[in-house]
Every structure is written in C-alpha cells, then in structure tokens.
Amino acid sequence: MFLRLADQYRTVVQDLVMSLHALASSLQKQGIVATCYGCDDGQGHDGHGASFVAELGDQHLVRFLVSDFGISWVESRNGRELVKFEGAEAIQELQRIAITIQERATTGSTPETVSR
Q1: Could you give the CA distance from residue 112 to residue 116 in angstroms, rounded to a whole number?
Q2: For residues 114 and 75, what is the distance between their CA atoms, to the nearest angstrom?
Q3: To 5 degrees, how large is the angle CA 85–CA 89–CA 95?
Q4: Do 80 and 86 meet the contact criterion of CB atoms below 8 Å apart?
Q5: How far apart are CA 92 and CA 110, in angstroms?
Q6: Lower CB count within 10 Å: N or C terminus of the chain?
Q7: Average pLDDT in the 87-104 region?
Q8: Environment class of residue 56 by beta-carbon count within 10 Å: exposed (0-12), middle (13-18) or buried (19+)?
Q9: Which pLDDT tens digit goes with each residue over 40-55?
Q10: What is the residue range of 57's domain?
Q11: How many domains does the structure of the chain reveal?
C-alpha cells in the first residue's frame, strides 16, 4: 500500500511540475515576470520538483516549491513574507492565483489586481 501511495505522490509532483511550466509560460506571454526551474534527482529523471516564482506587481512575489519532499507556497510583498501554505493549501492557493490571472487576461486588468 505505501509503495502505491509513494508512486501516486510522485505522479502528483510530476503533474504539478508540468502545470507550473505552463503557468510560467502563460504569465510571460502576459508580460508578467515568471520563472519555473525544474529539478531532478541527480540520476537524469526529470519531473521530481520545480521552483516557480512570479512577480505580480507592486513588489508582490509568489513562490511555489514542489518536490518529492513536499509542497509549499510563500507569498511576500516588499521582501516581507505575508503567508506560507504547505500541502493541499499550497495547491489551492496556486489555483486561486491561476484563476485570478486567467480572469485578468480576459478583462485586460493590470498585475496589481492579483493581490490578496
């Protein structure tokens, strides 16, 4: 049972890594500074983690980290940490930002409207 759960978690991590790369590309097309760096396990296996960072305007920065070790979300403004989530809450926060950015793209709003 535990091996099956470990495999399922690795699949979730791989899905998140692919989604983060796609989100970074989408944000870049909208003129938002966003990067996503993939990590591997040192053995040439891709998809074992990623670091996603996006600047949403007015010194508002979000960072999402995903790996086989865990998932975390950190949001900061002016260099000060505002909020940190881990696990499912981090993924929900990523979804909130993705939806907000998608809505903004539809309406043509500015990056500052993505703030909490």
Answers
A1: 10
A2: 12
A3: 110
A4: no
A5: 22
A6: N
A7: 89
A8: buried
A9: 555 444 557 999 999 9
A10: 2-114
A11: 1
